[in-house]
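Sequence in, structure out. Go.
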Amino acid sequence: MSKEVKKTLFFTIDFPPMGGGMSRHSLDAAIALRQVKEPVIVLAPRACCDKEFNVDAGLTVARLRGIATGEIFDNYLRSVIIFFLYGLYYCLTRRVQAILANTWSIAGVAAFLIKKTLGIPYFVFAHGLDIYAPQANTKASKLMRLVLQNASMVIANSHFTANLVKSAIGGQERIVVLNPVVDIKRFMPSASFFDKKVEGKKVVLTVARLVESKNHETLIRAFAKAVKIIPEAVCRIIGAGPLESQLRELVNALDLADKVIFTGNVPDSQLAAYYYSCDVFALVSKEIKERGEVEGFGIVFLEAASCARPVIGSKSGGIADAVIDGDTGILVDPLNEDEIARAIIRVLQDEKLANRLGENGRKRVETELTVENFGEKLKKLINAYMSKL
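Output:
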């Protein structure tokens, strides 16, 4: 007789109101399980305004005393112990039969300890960077392999990430690919979003932290070449980070001060407006192997596609899972300024191409990458494993 999962305990070190792609992925996973009537309890660090968010999200979220967002890695062992103790309590009092961990580090380590203590199986999400980076550190690499090898299943966000996991632990029978999803009701084409339009301009938009791996410098240099052909083009950069002053200096040096708009961070509630008001979305992330930095997927590509915008991505990491080259967007060499510039020019000049890419992107997320689809697939994966026990 099959053993259906009654309650799933979700350990996550990244959860709103904290920002970032992994935080959003955790929220989507929790909401997806709730929508397919799979009871889920989220354990997450404390954060500013978390009580209000918990109510708004309609989820059962237990905020861990003693761990605050931004402090979780300050004392690694302490964070693991707190997750472990909270997890034990919920496993013993709420009849939890399976645990999800949003990443192997801290959340996954705590899940591993609970499995050793109570025998409860756990499933681990893998995002790319979390698998890539530890390989440069012997101790971290050994701990990662221990957690992943003992997981009932490793759920990778892209085929690139799945291959990283395979290389790290050997074998692939317990590795599955489940692409991230996007809220198509929140990110959608709507004329009401045009309040973010730059009047009379063709807008190239990028949304990312201002760090080296996001490769803003190359994008700006490529844009400088594209704007010579399309003088009405402007580039809007959403995001903040340590490279902002350096990038502003580059913009001034290239005489683009009136062409590049630094918007800084914007509220999540406004992101859809910025996506829909652009003419093309571009993010040309690159791998930095010595620091273990890589784009495991790129949820921003789906957000732009869901708003029916054409996208330009790079042939790097797991972006090929997010952008179907020639169908929903164009993939380019992240180190080739000329190739990036040509892609920008091509999309801005060819309205039919831009419309086709945008329409195909929206159609893809509507049919394949919704929160509901994600929930059904995740539920089937967990229940299929549990039925074998």
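Check: The chain has a mean pLDDT of 90. DSSP finds 15 helices and 13 strands in the chain.
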